[in-house]
Sequence to fold (109 residues):
Amino acid sequence: MAGAVALCLGLITGCSFGDGSDPKRDAAQQQRFCAQFGQWQQDVDTPDADSVSGQMAIDAAKVLDREHLDTGGSHILRDTEAAVMYRMQDSGARVAAYCDRAGFETLVG
Fold:
């Protein structure tokens, strides 16, 4: 019985939950998102191209949302969708501010 408890505890402590994420992986996800959003900003006036890059930005925002990588109370998925789908400038500005806080301001306009 004690061996089973020790095994379970060993498995649990070896797992990463919540705040124990990998900072390098998190930064890579944030960089990917900011690069995708910046690409959409460049493609927005290109017929049909903005739908592809826009969807890629939304998909990258979904990863940030799922991984709880929003910072400062941002709502990155909601803001990204509003910027891409409805061309809401305030939402786009909040996304750019998120990328600025994450250290990837040069990737967005």
The CA atoms of residues 4 and 24 lie 34 Å apart. Residues 23-107 form one domain. The first helix runs from residue 2 to 13.
